[in-house]
Design goal:
7 helices, two-stranded parallel ribbon, alpha/beta, 43% helix, 204 residues, 4-stranded mixed β-sheet, disordered C terminus, Spore Coat Polysaccharide Biosynthesis Protein SpsA, Chain A, single chain
Length: 204
């Protein structure tokens, strides 16, 4: 979470940063955030991802809103900036990667039944940035429905979303295997930083 805050702060694109936390963990999250980022506000989320997005929308008056999943801790400041710039220009900017692998549909037994055309298919990430009026319209039409992400809510309301080239390192940590890979990435990054610092300190 704090890594994502650091990236958003370093992007230099935001007037404020709001963290949405599960009500049961609100105190713990707020304490963790306050230790590093006194200006960041922490608010309670809802029972679903979509409800938490609406809670974030209620917590700000910003005209451009970027929503990011803290389960993607390796987001970069430049990716935040690209999504925000797209939202300013086109109303939305959704990070993602064009699919490079072959995609097949399988039945319940795991038997391949068809190969899908991958051209034009994207693997969607966050951040997802929108003009406020785009999110307000999606919210008004969503009712009590929940969506897998904010782009889906916008599309369900009849809107269109603009894809922005994401980054492979912007992975989502959802499994134990993901966590192991993330730890390896952190170790490599820290080793690289340490090596760079040491080289600068070496006498000529």
């Amino acid at each position: 979470m704090c890594w994502s805050i650091a990236a958003a702060d370093a992007a230099g694109m935001f007037d404020e940063i709001v963290v949405v936390a599960a009500p049961a963990r609100l105190g713990a999250v707020e304490a963790a955030v306050r230790r590093r980022y006194a200006a960041v506000r922490v608010v309670a989320g809802g029972a679903t991802r979509t409800a938490s997005s609406w809670a974030a929308l209620d917590a700000t008056t910003a005209e451009i809103v970027a929503i990011h999943d803290a389960a993607r801790p390796f987001v970069t400041p430049s990716l935040f900036a690209r999504c925000v710039e797209s939202a300013r220009r086109d109303g939305s900017g959704v990070a993602g990667l064009p699919l490079a692998d072959t995609v097949r549909r399988a039945d319940e037994a795991g038997v391949s039944v068809e190969e899908l055309e991958r051209e034009g298919l994207w693997q969607v990430q966050t951040p997802q940035a929108f003009r406020r009026d785009v999110l307000d319209r999606a919210r008004a039409r969503a009712g009590d429905r929940s969506f897998t992400d904010d782009a889906a809510a916008v599309v369900a309301a009849g809107g269109r979303t603009r894809m922005v080239q994401g980054e492979r390192r912007n992975l989502k940590i959802t499994t134990t295997e993901d966590l192991g890979y993330a730890r390896e990435l952190v170790a490599k990054e820290l080793a690289a930083i340490a090596g760079s610092t040491t080289s600068r300190m070496l006498p000529r």
